[in-house]
Task: structure prediction
Amino acid sequence: MFSSFDNQGPQPREKWRSHVDWFVQDYRSQLTALAWRLQQEWHHDGTILGIDLKPQPHFVPCSPETLQTLNRRVGGRLQEILGIIAGADFEQEVIILCIGDGQVKLVYYQADPSPETCWQTHGPDLDQLIADLEAAMAESIQLESASK
Result:
């Protein structure tokens, strides 16, 4: 999952970050529902929702162990993100970690309406919600290298 992530210095801002922002804005309620429901499935074990942009955008679980390994691999540069995750209230907040072109982007927001309300609106078929959002991501989120 993190095979392209390396320990390079700061890199210029990538267009994919803006694409992720637009996608989250357009699908905020559905993403809130998905993140909340997956927390229920994962029994609040510290796993968060991730979006891996390669080879095409898809959801992945990011376990605490995976995140700690990645943090060590990049010299502790994810420590702040790990702190946000550790202190999150997943009944009110949404956290999604996006991985693309050797970089990460944290999506973090207060849910409004509540995650449970979003799930009642966009559920109850978790697999269909995932499929629909992954299809929308494939159209919405473009990697910098794909747009050249």
About this structure: The mean pLDDT is 89. The helical segments are 15-26, 28-41, 64-73, 79-86, 115-122, 126-140.
